[in-house]
Description:
Methylamine Dehydrogenase, Chain H
Amino acid sequence: MNRFFGSSGARPPAWARGPGYLSAWLAVSLSAGLTGSLMANSAQAATTPGAAQKPVAQELPAETLSVTSLAQASSARVYVADVAISHIVDGRIRVFDATGGRFLGMVSTGFAGNFTLSAKADELYVATTYYSRGTRGERTDLLEVHDTVTLAPKYEVSLPPRRAQALNYRGLVRATGSGHYVLVQNATPATSITVVDLTARQVVNEIQTPGCWGTLPAASGNRFSMLCGDGKVATITLNEHGQVADRQVSAKLFDADTDAWFHHAEQVGDRYWFVSFLGQLTELDLGGPVARVVREQSLLSAADRKGGWRPGGYQNFAVDPSAHWLVAGMHPKGAEGSHKSPAAQLWVFDLQTGHRSARHPGKNTASLTFSHNGERLQALDGVTGAMNVWRWQGPGKLTQLTRVAKAGEAALHIESHD
């Protein structure tokens, strides 16, 4: 037995002989004590008469993986892009049943991938980036085409390594109205658009677009427009080979220094709606070779301005498919830099009369979209990552259909399948 304080022939305490000795002594002592305890317990168990023997649990059946599809699932579903900001190389799109909230599947979107759907919602286009060493190494940019029934990849097209690695916004990847091309936003930071021919499955053009950002396709053909930093709208028309046949620029439509437009836009046919930081609504016709202003109005009354009400969020307003109703996420006491603030209230406007028709609780909404059939309003909570889905029954009534408590970590972009 080890003897310590005051005993004849005792060694100095372990702590007095240095940390190395103490560590070794503790290891030996604990090991010896544990071994002795185990041996004593084993001996006692072996000699105890009538000791009960525990039954051996049945082995669990082996798990098997299977692959299913959404062929039998309801078409009432939504796609929620999550940039996964805390592990951004691992973004994803989650697919949910829009009426019951059930998780249906997931598509990987790599490093800050952005997506869009085909007009028939039968294909999902993801523009993304991969690095050979995860977060570093050789860069590979791809346009990945997925089947929306199986969510499996169909094919991919190599892109120039210049695509914009940005948060999820609708305008960063779009298909043309003809469905023949996909347009991918680039930034180095010089801006350009990569044109991908879906029939040939290859890049056919890169269009330099200095000072302009995002793609706003016309309803048909191969024409698209872009917002520019000087307050103008550029419109580019492609020929059947994906080359530029015409390029025109509108007059100045907004002042980016005094009242910038949100880049998010709502589209019904060739009609596009834009909202400014201070709540000015502008409708454009983007079907022709140059953008044309259709209508302008303020979303705010004098009392609203006094209360500092402003629009805010990412996909921060939605127009229903009939182009009758607009729902905007609004917050009070707005100021410079509050344009990303989630909604304190949802305001409903009648686009035919220009009047505000209703107010609803905002539920921290940062992103909004209607279903294509106009039956649902779908929203992402910018604080908790929840998804709220309501049955749309006109301006005065929203009936909650489902709520998903966590639709993503950094979910900012939502699109409807139906």
